[in-house]
């Protein structure tokens, strides 16, 4: 007797939920994308993007995933990587 678990259909209408950390990262990335007109290798100050101290974890999350790069090791200016630009499209 063959027993198999029922197959689950993937629900294409409801994408997987993302964490609050990823939402914060995506918000900053969208602001950066709009500020740079989506052009590659453009830098923008975090102050100009409206980032606050609470966004630091989201920014670090994006940096860890290679979506953002920072200028000179300080959290002053950021630029989207190609992976970051593709993540937003």
- Residue fraction in strands: 5-15%
Sheet with most strands: strand arrangement: 1-3-2
In round numbers, the mean pLDDT is 85
Treating each run of at least 4 consecutive H or I residues as one helix, how many helices? 3
Number of strands: 3
**Unreliable stretches, pLDDT < 50, 5 or more residues?**
none
The computed structural class is alpha+beta
Quaternary assembly: single chain
Concise account of the structure shown:
With about 90 residues, the protein is of the alpha+beta class.
Write the layout of secondary structure elements.
Elements lengths: L19 H16 L8 E2 L10 H9 L3 E3 L6 E4 L1 H7 L1
Antiparallel strand pairs: 1-3, 2-3
Describe the protein.
This protein has 89 residues and is α+β, with helices and mostly antiparallel strands. It contains three helices and three strands. It has helices spanning 20-35, 56-64, 82-88, and strands at residues 44-45, 68-70, 77-80. The chain has a three-stranded antiparallel β-sheet with strand order 1-3-2. A hairpin with a 6-residue loop joins strand 2 (68-70) and strand 3 (77-80). The relative contact order is 0.20. The mean pLDDT is 85.
Provide keyphrases for this structure:
89 residues, alpha+beta, three-stranded antiparallel beta sheet, 3 helices
